[in-house]
Amino acid sequence: xxxxxxxxxxxxxxxxxxxxxxxxxxxxxxxxxxxxxxxxxxxxxxxxxxxxxxxxxxxxxxxxxxxxxxxxxxxxxxxxxxxxxxxxxxxxxxxxxxxxxxxxxxxxxxxxxxxxxxxxxxxxxxxxxxxxxxxxxxxxxxxxxxxxxxxxxxxxxxxxxxxxxxxxxxxxxxxxxxxxxxxxxxxxxxxxxxxxxxxxxxxxxxxxxxxxxxxxxxxxxxxxxxxxxxxxxxxxxxxxxxxxxxxxxxxxxxxxxxxxxxxxxxxxxxxxxxxxxxxxxxxxxxxxxxxxxxxxxxxxxxxxxxxxxxxxxxxxxxxxxxxxxxxxxxxxxxxxxxxxxxxxxxxxxxxxxxxxxxxxxxxxxxxxxxxxxxxxxxxxxxxxxxxxxxxxxxxxxxxxxxxxxxxxxxxxxxxxxxxxxxxxxxxxxxxxxxxxxxxxxxxxxxxxxxxxxxxxxxxx
Amino acid sequence: xxxxxxxxxxxxxxxxxxxxxxxxxxxxxxxxxxxxxxxxxxxxxxxxxxxxxxxxxxxxxxxxxxxxxxxxxxxxxxxxxxxxxxxxxxxxxxxxxxxxxxxxxxxxxxxxxxxxxxxxxxxxx
Lengths: 460, 125
Known about the structure:
The complex is a heterodimer.
Chain A: E1 8-14, H1 19-32, E2 49-54, H2 57-64, E3 70-80, H3 83-92, H4 95-98, E4 107-115, H5 121-129, E5 139-140, E6 147-154, E7 168-177, H6 181-185, H7 201-210, E8 218-221, H8 228-235, E9 239-244, H9 247-251, H10 270-276, E10 283-288, E11 302-307, E12 318-320, E13 340-343, H11 346-360, E14 361-374, E15 389-398, E16 403-412, H12 419-433, H13 439-459
Parallel strand pairs in A: 4-5, 4-6, 8-9, 8-11, 9-10, 11-14
Antiparallel strand pairs in A: 1-2, 1-3, 3-7, 6-7, 12-13, 14-16, 15-16
Helix pairs in contact in A: 1-7, 7-8, 11-12
Chain B: H1 3-8, E1 24-32, H2 39-45, H3 51-60, H4 78-90, E2 91-99, E3 106-110, E4 113-114
Antiparallel strand pairs in B: 1-2, 2-3, 3-4
C-alpha cells in the first residue's frame, strides 16, 4: 500500500506487556493529537516493532508524552532483513532529510539495541562502523549528544530459538521515550490510600489513554473506590469527580487494605491520594452515591467516564434498597442510615452504566470500563451495546483459567433523546450477558473443582 | 463540596423530576480553599452553569462579588473568570445539608462529602 509522501515513517518500540491494549492506546492517542493511524504493517500482534506514518514530529512527540505502552519512537531512516538491505534502504533515504541532523556543528551518538540476543562489544562496534557511508559530519559525543541514532536488531520473540541472523534491522533517529516511568512513580505499593481492588498503575494510565482524556476535561468514575483511576486522569490534566456507594471508602475510614495495618490513617482518602502526587487542584468532589440512582441534573457534563465496576468477587455488587428487601444480618452503614446490600445483577449494572454514559457524556466523549467474563461462555455478541455509543475497542486480560476481564471502550456518537426510548431495546441484550451474572460463582467454581481433584488423587 | 458540584446536583427522590433542582443548600461549616487558577477550565465550565441556582447558593453562603451572569467575551475576561473561579472552585462546604425543594428530604454533607443515598421507596428507578 503506497503511503502519502507528506507522512514520515516512524518506528515505535513497544513494551511487551498488555499486548492487546497497545494498539487501541496508540490509535486513541493519535486521534487525540490530530493524527490518524496509518500503517503499511499488516499485523501488530506480539511484535514490539511497529512502523507508522505520522504527519509531523510534533504529533509523534505528543504521542510519547502520553503513552505507557510504547518505550521509544524513532524517525525511520532505513530497514532491511539483512545488513545489505538496510544499507540499500539508507542510501535511498533522501539526503536532504538527513542533513539537518548530521552537519558539522552538531554532536551525535549511535546506539545499538538487539532484541532477544546479546552481542559482544566487538560485534556492536563492527555494526556501527559499517554505517560510515552515511554523511555524518558532526562530532561524536557519548555523554550529551544533540542527536541520538539507533540501530535496532530484531531476533524474534522466542528466547529458546535465537536465530543467527536478525529477522529485521532498523535504523532511525531517536525522537522521544514514552511514559513508562509513570508505572513506577505511581505504583500502588507507594500510594497512601489503597483498597482491595486498586487498579495497577500501568492499566490506569492505559484506561485514561483509551478514554482520550485531555487537559481541562471533566472525568467521572461512578465506582471510584480509592480513586486510583482518577489519579491517572488528573495526571493528564483532567478535573475529576467520583462517587461510590461505600461510605467508608469515600471518607477513607474503616479497615485498611495493607497487610500489617489495622485501620486507615487520617491521610487516607481520595483527596489525599491526589495530594500525594501534587494533583490536588484537579480534585472536584467525591460523593456517596448509588450509581444506579445518580444525582446529576439533566445535561452532558463528562468528557470521559472511566471506571472499574465491582465484579462481586473481591468487592460486592450492591445498590440501595428498602427495609423490606434487605434480609436480616446484612450490615448497615450506621452513618449513612441507608441499608446497602441489595444484590445488583451485573447485567443490570452494565445496562445502567451504558445508559448513564449515553446521557451524560459530551458528544465524542468516551466510556472506558472493565467487563468481567466467564471465558467458556464468552461471545462478542454479549458485549453491552447502546444506540448512542460506538464500540471502539475490547481488550482481554486473563484473570484465571476460565475467567477474564475485558476493557471496553465506547464513544458517544449520537445525542441522547430520552430515557424511556432505550429501555425496551436494551432489555433483550441483558439476556445474552445473564450467564455472567453469576460471575462470582463461576470465578470460584474452578477453585473448588481443583480442590476436589486434589483430594481425590491424595486418597488414591 | 464545591459550588460547581452543587450546581450539577439534583434530587432523585421518586416523583420529583426536574422540580428537584436546585437542592437547597444549608451550611454550618465552610472553608475557603485556594485552588490554582486555570482560566481555560473555568471558561469551559461557564456554559454548564445554571445561574439562578448558583446565585441562590452564593447568597446562602453570603458570598460577595459574584457575577450575575456571563459577560460578553467572558473567555478573555480575566477578572470575570477569576471571580467565577473563586465561587465555583474555592468555596468548600464542609458540613451542612442539601434539601430536596419538592419533598423536603435532606442529604447530609459531612467532611465535605455529600451523601446522596436514599431508600428504595424514596428514589426514582
